[in-house]
Amino acid sequence: MTDPQGRLLEINESYCRMSGYSQQELLGMRIGDLEAIETVDQTVARILKIKNHGNDRFESYHRRKDGTVFPVEVSTQYLQADDGRYVVFIRDITDRKRLEKNLYDQRRRLESIIEGERVGTWEWNVQTGETVFNEAWAQIIGYTLEELAPISIQTWERFAHPDDLRESDLLLERHFSGVLPYYESECRMRHKDGHWVWVIDRGRVLTRSEDGKPLMMFGTHAEVTERKREEENLRVAKGFSESIIEHAAEGVCVCHNIQQYPYVRFTVWNRRMQEITGYSMAEINRLGWYQTIYSDPVIREQVQERMERMRTGDDLHNEGWEITRSDGQKRFLEINTTILPSHDGQTHVLALMHDITEHKRAEQKLAQEAIRRRILIEQSRDGIVVLDQNGKVYEANQRYAEMLGYTAEEVRELYVWNWDLQWSSDELLEMIRLVDPAGDHFETRHRRKDGTSFDVGVSTNGAVIEGQKLIFCVCRDITERKKAEEKLRASEEKYRGIFDCSIAAIYLFDQDKHFIDSNQAGLDLLGYSREELLQMSIPDVDADPVVVLPAHSELLSGRRLINCEHELRRKDQSIITVLNNSIPLTESNGNVIGMLSTLLDITERKQAENKIKASETFIRDVIDSLSSSLAVLDQHGTIIDVNASWKRHATDNGCLDRNFYMGTNYLDVCEKAAATGLGIELMEIAGGIRSVIDRSESSYGREYFCQTPSGDLWSRMKAFPLNTPEAGAVIIHDDITAQKRAESSILNALEEKQVLLQEIHHRVKNNLQVVIGLLGLQTGQLKNPTVKEALQVSQQRIKIMAMIHETLHQGQNLAAVSLAGFLMKLTQQLKNAYNQHANILVTVEAEEIVLKMDQAIPCGLIVNELVTNALKYAFPGNASGQVHIKASRIDGSRIELKVTDNGIGLPPSVDLTRPSSLGLQMVRGLVEHQLSGSFYASVSGGTTFVMRWAL
User: Fold this and answer.
1) DSSP strands (E only) in 744-832
2) Strands ordered across the beta sheet of 120-125
3) Most exposed among 237, 354, 520, 857, judged by the fewest C-beta atoms under 10 Å?
4) Residues 278, 874: Cα–Cα separation, whole Å
5) Interatomic CA distance for residues 383 and 937, integer angstroms
6) pLDDT digits over 610-631, tens only?
7) Which of 475, 440, 434, 482 minimizes the C-alpha distance to 461?
8) pLDDT in tens, 586-617
9) Spatial distance between the Cα atoms of 453 and 419, rounded to a whole number of angstroms
10) Cα–Cα distance measured from residue 425 to residue 437, given in angstroms and rounded to the nearest whole number
11) Taking residues 249-268, what's their average pLDDT?
12) Is the pTM of this model over 0.70?
């Protein structure tokens, strides 16, 4: 940490080790004293830049105490709130710089190889058409890259032969679709001077999109004009074949009699073979192939074993073997062999040999380079891990294994999500897919093997090696740095967090009432953005100046503002009510320079309070408008509220109620009055109310009588528990004196009416008995049996009516008859009247149905007629049988009456729609006209009459 002038204030041990100074030595120095390349002016300019921008990150060189210089990466943060200090993080990047230099040198070597071979290279963005060629590519056709600019895929198409382009496009499509692993095409290109040159165009797609489309393709152009010309010459004249072989770039030889070990005879041996081996064909045939070329006995034995397999048809394909030249040099050959058919029955072998010594040496150098890099990786103080495209560890150094607490072998079995705590496996795979050579830098948290975690800074970049995407990650434990940052943040955010996270709106104003700061709750309260609000002042949002202006005057005079309610206007012009607590902001000399205000939105609370007041007023008006007297008792029985009717009743009534008023204990008054004998039921009432207050009973009520000087009073009292957490009761009194008097009058009238009805029924029954008796006297004097029978039938019908009046006179109900009892009594009377039919069983099945008199009489007459007819006519010759009467409800409000006999049935001549007999005519008339019902009969297996009517 430094002060604004660059003096070192705090230094950690890591930098002391890095620079070779002690903390005491460094405390007396400036940051510029450590700089090795920046001048004092440059250092001052950088400090000012950091102050203006807040932070900076750059690379430089520092000088150690011993005078040596080392590269560093510097990250600087300006802390304005901490007296303008600077926090400087310095990282020794010596290893990284060395690695970068090695990578640069390696790239230069590769470029040198390409330039030495004069191979043209190209990079093609298949989707956009953007193309990059090297200078050798342009030189193949006699141009420079500047002459060909601007360069795109059309540059290639412009110079390529049209016939060859079509073939090239077909090969490209096969490679894009995956049929061919590589693209390779021989084609002609027009040279600058007008002639055609042959090139072999090789390439491969290295990156594809998610849906498999080719993205980037890399390849080479090698001029093969000479080779093509030689091939053409071979086709023109067979005689040129020897010349072609002789001048082939590869060693070409043909040997015969390969079964004759250890000697084989060569018949073809081109110039390149002599250059490769140092022997002529005559010398090699004389000295022997195995004995001269493979001087190492071990290699010779391996070659001999390989030749045995070749004799069986196992040709050599790009196999590498070490040979010894005639001058003793060791060379590496890449050998391809093919068995040639022959008409003489001997085995002939064509061998192509390519000297790959330089290539092998390059590989060895690369391997050595890889070893050197491995040493650097293992010696790195940072953890280094390489992931494959599936997130699995491809390689990791020992430092990274130690950071995670695993062995190197255990780490190689892990996936990145086994230790990363910040992202899911799907998110990590997506990050791997997106990483590119440009790389990325981020921070995360890693989980150790023992379950603990730590903060990590990760730098990544991606590369495709041998068709496989690898992700290189350099991981640094930043736990200590995070702790230091956390301490810095804690000191800065301690109070800012309270400010920003408060649910109350907090504003800062200057002395002119302009907004100078607001937390998020303040912005949300007024509906403005921060930029808008900081351009405004209090009058812009004040909707209650009568309250606000005096309050602000108090604040500017140095006094606090506590719980002040006033209104504000939001951005959408809506009005809100706030509770304002403000304090003045003063300088050290006491001058007020602004205000700090904390506001709470109480709009909903005020609205709720107003609704509650309105509701209470409404409920009070409703309760006071009740005619019932109402009082509320607390848990002790004391009256805490009464309505207007209770007040009127307590004032006007001459009874004890005048004592039952606000503040009076209702239960005590009842019990004292009961003790004096004034209210004999008051003790029981007090007990009932007490049980409601105690909630041992859900309610209590009773009616009581009270004698007063103004007259007798009847009251109905009800008590209900209060629906509140605290015990209590609601008492309701209703004056029911008028109701009681009306009930008494009604009861007296009912008693008089009942006596009158009983007397009427009794007199009607007696009168009908007189008529029955007169008809009986008249019947006894008649000689004509027809007339006599008619009078007897009429006499029976009158008996039915008399029976109903007798039943009404004797019953409790003077206007209705029980149908079941009446039918039982009627059938018994009919059986007695027709006792000569004792062998006929008459049964009754009736539900509990009550009939009024206007239905009971027709029903009795109907049953009388039908049962009489059945007894008289249905069972001739004293035959036995059964008559069944059934009465039941149907559809809830209708009656069905059935009279059934199992006799001989009705004669065919009887027409029920127009019956000729008086009895059936009377039955039909009673059902249809007097009962307003329906009537029908069935004559299957006897006779059944069915009547239905509404109750």
Assistant:
1) 816-818
2) 131-133, 120-125, 214-223, 196-208, 183-190
3) 237
4) 150
5) 110
6) 888 887 787 777 777 777 888 8
7) 440
8) 887 788 888 899 999 988 888 888 888 887 78
9) 9
10) 22
11) 77
12) no
